[in-house]
């Protein structure tokens, strides 16, 4: 937790940097560094201040930050802090390029190259910092972090091996290639050309210090610990690179914690490391119930919780443990007890979103009423904090009707709902929180709190949530998963809701609006509007809208629209092998040819299409019955033969089928009578 004077120290450092009083800033940082290095000042703020995100304003771009750091390094070439912060800046830029458009984004070769070019500059800066100070802990620590995340640059490995590193263009034949141009563009955008030539020797402090074949991660940790013994920050970073995310495991982390590398740390510090490893384990894939792994994790959790821990650590452990314990013990009560223990840590203790969803499900949907005090505590704290959109809206519905141990207060309910909506907009979580609120609404409905359920969805819809407006469409039609009282059934309201959600751009609502208009929900059938919304849904990417638009045209459209459906729309669907309605489109088209809707009747083409339907779905009874009708008598088979002559035996389904066409039944051996 930040100490009271941290804000003053941060403000002072920021002011000195912003006014470019670099000599004064260096002098002040060095004074702070001495106490931090010696670990004799409990409230020392050096570690907090020593980061670009602390020193710089959030409004300053990467280019502006780089310009200030380069100015500092030029004015004070011997400044350890200027070079170290420059290295940290370049390391962060490597991650910015690597992350690209987000965690789901596939990393391109040019991104890897751009990130590596940033790492080159980071390493050059850290080497300069190491040469400027006898105890460069931050430089060593960040060299370890960089090596763990991106690996050592080839030229640094060469220097440690006593070799002269080759320039970049000699080591790799990549310059002037598209990948090189795209990767280098990341640096050019900041006004910097890629570094291509390297130092010919290491700083004196690093020469002859690396053991043969010593791993980079181990080496840089050893160097950091040699200048700042029992450095918790360095060890935490080292252990992180042995976590599941980096290909390790919590078992691997615990082996390190219990081994000689951590022997100099206190038991409290080792317990913190163990807690971090356990958080890694509990936050990953949940171990199978009754497995040795599950038993081991429960034992480790129990042992740690019996030790003195920082409140934040204890809360984090209990937060992740709640749902795990409930699963492992197959007992919602056990999970609820974990969250009761969490609330007992401090009046401010709060679990995360998944805990809130579990508590709601366990107490309301699973009727574990003994857990009601846990739900009450959750909602009371949510009201006091009012910083979590999900819980704030949930609490608003509860106080509107005086549910779950809360008093009835309609005025407070309105304010909480406004606050929840504001948070959703500010945090850009309208869709994700909206979906979670629907889960809570279903839990409330299962608990027979249907009025509160209706209130929650209506208030969200009134404030602009298209998702809740769309959900009300099903609610008013009694098409919800839970029975809705007859007094709340209202087809007119349902139609208004689905049209409102459709106009808001919600694609499933566009499709449902078209279906509702087609069936005349709340009034008369509106064919033109139905076709409009089918088209909007199709253009927006709804996978089924094009089929239903074609079927609507066949049912209600003009002759021209029927012909378009038969000649264009349905065949286009048949041509798409992965279309979700391909089977239905084939059957509908077959019936159109069979009945002469939108085209001249031709039973031979209809027969081909029904066989095609069976090829797509051998279990289709309706297609089987249609085929029996088309070929089940001599007269029917004669009609098939006549219609086949009309189209000269052309296989209508040949462009769409994956196997040979079916053969027309032979009528030559049938009894000579007419049915």
From TrEMBL:
Identify the residues that the record assigns to the DUF4034 domain, covering every copy.
11-275
Q: Indicate what this protein is called per its UniProt record.
A: DUF4034 domain-containing protein
Alphabetical UniProt keywords: Repeat
The protein's matches in InterPro entries, at most eight in alphabetical order, are given as: Chitin_Synth_Reg (IPR051726), DUF4034 (IPR025115), Sel1-like (IPR006597), TPR-like_helical_dom_sf (IPR011990)
**Annotated Pfam families:** DUF4034, Sel1
For the region Disordered, what residue ranges are annotated? 655-675
